[in-house]
Design a protein that fits this description.
With 195 residues, this protein is an all-alpha fold. Helix content is 72%, strand content 0%. It is built from 7 helices and no strands. Helix 2 crosses helix 5, helix 4 packs antiparallel against helix 5 and helix 5 packs antiparallel against helix 6. It is globular.
Length: 195
């Protein structure tokens, strides 16, 4: 049953995670699902370094790395210098928080509605979105601690790495991409819409 659910989750099919624990919408079922997702996430983290460095992947990894390096070196500082207005930063931060709240709320609502209406596909989509956002947030926090990058809007900031800050990578972006990665493939029919 666990192998079928794992295979189904990779194929984007609804799984019946939690059925072995009784009610998947109950506290015990939710805890069981959370533990299973946590184990899968930690196995993925352990295998990520090995899986990411493959000769076949270099054709797209190297251009992405080069582009990222050029953008950090050439475009990052000028862009940060142009966005110095405190009011603009406050508005952008407020809208980012609203967007994050909408994502978390809609995933929780999908989970709750799926439980209430006995729709396993909707329930699993909501749960997977919540789990993906939690995993992205956890990984993001680890990277923030590792990179220790200054916030660009603090006094005398140069935006340098390992300079005392938590500005990189963006937690809002990480959770938004995690939310989209779950919702897109499960609900958008065309691959170009998923992208």
């Amino acid at each position: 049953n666990a192998r079928i659910n794992c295979l189904n989750s990779h194929l984007g099919e609804p799984s019946d995670v939690g059925s072995a624990t009784g009610n998947p919408c109950g506290l015990h079922g939710f805890a069981h699902q959370t533990w299973a997702e946590t184990l899968q996430f930690s196995r993925g983290l352990v295998g990520a370094p090995r899986d990411s460095i493959r000769p076949a992947n270099l054709k797209w990894e190297l251009p992405i790395l080069a582009t990222t390096g050029i953008l950090i070196a050439e475009a990052d500082r000028p862009a940060a210098d142009r966005i110095q207005a405190k009011s603009l930063q406050d508005v952008a931060g407020r809208w980012s928080d609203i967007g994050l709240g909408i994502e978390i709320g809609s995933a929780a609502l999908a989970y709750g509605a799926g439980c209430r209406e006995h729709q396993s596909y909707l329930r699993d989509t909501g749960f997977k979105a919540l789990a993906a956002m939690a995993a992205a947030g956890t990984l993001d926090l680890g990277l923030k601690l590792a990179f220790d990058r200054q916030f660009p809007y603090t006094a005398n900031s140069t935006g340098k790495f390992w300079g005392g800050g938590r500005s990189f990578p963006s937690g809002h972006s990480a959770t938004s991409f995690a939310f989209a990665a779950v919702g897109g493939p499960r609900h958008l029919p065309k691959p170009w819409l998923q992208w």
